[in-house]
Amino acid sequence: MAPKNKEKEVDPGWEHGEMVAGDRHKVKCKWCHKILSGGIHRFKQHLAGIQGEAKPCANVPTEVRKEMRDMLLEKKNEKEKKKKFDERVVNMQRIDTSEDDSDGDGDVEARELRRAFRASREQFASEQARMDETRAGASSSRAPPDPYRDTARRGTMDPFLHRSQSTKQPKISSSIMGDMKVRATKMGRAISKFFHYNRIPPNVANSPYYRSMVDTIAEVGPGVKPPSAYEIGGKYLDMEVSDYWRYLEDHFKTWEEYGCTLMCDGWTSNNRRHIINFMAYCVTGTVFIRSVDTSGHRMDAEYLYSLIDDTLAMVNNWHKYVVAIVTDNAPNFKAAAKKLREKGKGIIWVPCAAHCIDLMLEDIGKLDDVRETIDEGKMVTSLIYNHQFMTDLLREMNEGREILRPGITRFATHFVALESLCRAKANIMQMWTSTAYVKSKFSHQPLARKVQQIVLGEDFWNRAERITDLLEPLVLVLKLVDADTKPTMGFVYDAMDRAKLAIEQRSRGKYGTYYKKIWKIIDNRWDNQMHQDIHASGKFSLLVHFHHGY
């Protein structure tokens, strides 16, 4: 059996031999069963059939013998290269200590090399002093830092990323290893080919794991076989899963003290699969728990309850720490949360504030004048982007800027798209009066003429500006609750109150009592869905916090 150590993992020689009696310096050949002393290197000489070093194996296959010979020859060449490189470094050190820059010897290259060498040495000394100071400060603490806890508070869960950033400073001699620019270009071409020919978006290189991968490859060095597709999807994926659960254990400790909130978020993939993601939120941040493909299932209360209950059972005693569950405002989720309470789980159901506000905007969008305006705005936008001639004309008139198109999932995008049209109003109107449009065959089409009437009329723009002006405060609250840094419900309550006041003030100044229609819709959704005991306690706590100056 091969030794379970690092040497076994990287040296192919162990595939043809096994350790004897736990001593890695004694290897038994699986081809001739001879026991050799001297470790794995002498055993590879035995397989390669090198005379004078070890007695050649008589039974080893030809391809194995050739593989071992090539491996030993490559190692020998690497040693010779290293020897020459070390000699070069010594010579550079002699150059560095022999003369000063101002010696006037006329050897420009030598002076530049000395200057670069000293700069590199000074940089190394400075960095080494900084690292020593950091280590000294860390050693004075009572207990060593927990990498998982520290990374959780910094927002990054993987300590591997931080480890790669703290690798030791390269040797001074590395500054003179060949032409850096040529080597960088060679590496850049190789990596870019991998991206280009596998249709990987270039922005993937912005991932912190990209730089970590490159640094690790450089650290390991040449000759190490990269992982296969089977290994990436097998043992290495299993390692990541194990690391992630270890990462979650740190959050479990926090949950024991503060509790946590289970969040459910459903979405539909491009291939029409219905997915529900489960996350847990606490003061240390949000962590992913599981993802469930619910395609083909009836999304009733019983099924949703079973999903939530199974999620709570994934971690031992986790259900003790879950104090609330956040879902959208659909009746089936509300009914599932009710079953949780009936089963004695003691979990509070909290409707999603972002979903609630989006439903407000959807209800406002059902008002006759608002619905008509949104439909006309969509008609204008669709005509522009469905015809290349109009798209090019827009970019020319609007100085290359695009107008936003409504999304599918959030109704708020209709109002954002309408606002985008209003900002480009002058340029859009100019499109339909330009010489290029008037002389084009496209201008005679019925749909183009209809849109022209909308764009050149004042009624559409007056309605669009009124709607976007009045609903801007509500859209801002939606952006607030939908941000990565979630505010407390106390802040959300205050934001909604301010939004209503802003809508009233804007309406009284320009549009009379139109705000009352919007207020009625807001209050209906807010009172029926968001007025929860936990929200009220959050607002009260916030008021106490500021009153006492905490």
**SS class:** alpha/beta
- First-residue to last-residue Cα separation: 64 Å
Biggest sheet descriptor: 5 strands, mixed
The coarse silhouette is: flat
- Give the total of beta strands: 8
Total number of helical segments?
23
Poorly predicted sequence stretches spanning 5 or more consecutive residues: 1-9, 92-109, 138-157, 162-169, 172-177, 544-550
State which percent range the strand residues make up.
5-15%
State mean pLDDT (0 to 100 scale): 75
Q: Strand order within the widest sheet?
A: 6-5-4-7-8
Oligomer: single chain
Outline:
The protein is α/β, with parallel strands linked by helices and 550 residues long.
Describe this structure in words.
With 550 residues, the chain is an alpha/beta fold. Among the domains are: 6-89, no CATH class; 240-351, Ribonuclease H-like superfamily/Ribonuclease H (Nucleotidyltransferase, domain 5), CATH 3.30.420; 358-545, no CATH class. The chain contains 23 helices and 8 strands. The strands form 2 sheets. The chain has a 5-stranded mixed β-sheet. Strands 1-2-3 form a 3-stranded antiparallel β-sheet, with helices on one face. Helix 14 crosses helix 20 and helix 20 packs antiparallel against helix 21.
